[in-house]
Design a protein that fits this description.
With 310 residues, the protein is of the alpha/beta class. The chain folds into two domains: 226 residues, Rossmann fold; 76 residues, 2-Layer Sandwich (Alpha-Beta Plaits), CATH 3.30.70.250. Helix content is 31%, strand content 29%. The chain contains ten helices and 14 strands. Strands 6-7-8-3-9-10 form a six-stranded mixed β-sheet, with helices on both faces. A four-stranded antiparallel β-sheet has the order 2-1-4-5. The longest helix has 18 residues. Bound molecules: adenosine-5'-diphosphate and magnesium ion.
Length: 310
């Protein structure tokens, strides 16, 4: 049995352009393995192809070519098994307004062929905090409640893999925290593999063990979160000089710039030099320092570096 929850090979998708619009190549040959048990982040700017990829996994979009294995089952050869292994919380709210939360979960369980005796609607309603709204019509629920119901819907068949497309985009802090704690618990207590797309880099940095970055339909990075962060080994020393600088000091291998607030930012590669060298060079240049702090690259720097238009 493979160690991977998902194996994607040379995945391509071209949307047919309608009404005179040209065809759109949304995925240009993506290879990606997602390990079992991980919380995996799929990041990328708007239009990168994240939803296309997730909707292909979910069986909502038909790929143009390539192969997808879900929990060891080829999507084309074993469509039923591969579908049963995955639950998807889509980006847009697609709920039938005339069903109640309990009704919504029951219908979804029916679609997945879960026998009545094995359904866990009450437990799911409890988990998503909608027990007291079980019999309310979906159209009367708040946006946050509907989103929680979408999460519940993704869980009715107890899938091995849970996929969430921008689960916290545009939600308030309270709901975001509730969603995140639910997701963490599903991962820790049930060993569920979690795949999520987000454009909140801070969140990916905090939640995800591994990250793939996609841009213009191509994978541009795939690594552990720690390695991605370590990849940019630049450090910046920010110095508040005693007197404003007339000229920038010319320091070998160090990029110096003055900022609007009068501080001097010195950026260098941690592999080549250390902070001591930089300070030594400043002293030699006759600069007196009032205050000093350091800045480190974060995921946002890595992201910008990898998705910058070239
Ligand atoms: P993301 O989720 O990363 O923002 P998408 O997968 O939604 O990106 O979109 C990738 C590209 O494919 C975009 O250029 C988008 O406009 C295009 N696209 C998405 N869905 C369709 C569709 N149904 N028909 C035509 N083009 C589409
Ligand atoms: Mg999207």
């Amino acid at each position: 049995m493979s160690e991977n929850a998902i194996e994607i090979r040379d995945l391509r998708k071209t949307y047919r352009g309608g009404k005179g619009a040209p065809p759109k190549e949304a995925l240009k040959g993506v290879d990606l393995d997602i390990p079992k048990g991980s919380i995996f982040g799929l990041l990328g700017p708007n239009g990168a192809g994240k939803s296309t990829m997730i909707n292909i996994l979910a069986g909502l979009v038909v790929k143009s070519s390539g192969s997808v294995r879900i929990w060891g089952f080829d999507q084309d050869q074993n469509p039923r098994q591969s579908r049963a292994a995955i639950g998807v919380m889509p980006q847009e709210l697609n709920l039938d307004p005339f069903f109640t939360p309990r009704g919504t979960l029951e219908v979804q369980a029916g679609l997945y062929g879960v026998p009545k005796a094995q359904r866990k609607s009450d437990a799911i309603l409890e988990m998503i905090g909608l027990s007291d709204k079980a019999e309310a019509y979906a159209r009367t629920l708040s946006g946050g409640m509907r989103r929680r119901l979408l999460l519940g819907k993704a869980l009715v068949h107890d899938p091995h893999i849970l996929v969430l497309d921008e689960p916290t985009a545009g939600v308030d802090i309270e709901l975001r925290q509730m969603l995140w704690s639910n997701i963490r618990r599903l991962n820790e207590e049930r060993g569920m593999t979690i795949i999520l797309t987000t454009h909140y880099l801070e969140e990916a940095e905090e939640m995800c063990d591994e990250i793939a970055i996609i841009n213009h339909g191509e994978l541009v990075a795939r690594d552990s979160t720690a390695n991605l962060l370590g990849r940019l080994d630049t450090r910046t020393l920010v110095i508040d000089p005693v007197a404003p600088l007339a000229v920038l000091p010319n320091l070998d291998g160090i990029i110096a710039e003055t900022r609007a607030d009068g501080t001097l930012a010195l950026t260098y590669h941690a592999e080549e030099r250390d902070a001591g060298d930089v300070l030594e060079a400043l002293r030699t240049a006759g600069l007196r320092i009032r205050d000093i702090r350091t800045e480190q690259a974060d995921l946002e720097d890595v992201f910008l570096d990898l998705t910058a238009t070239r």
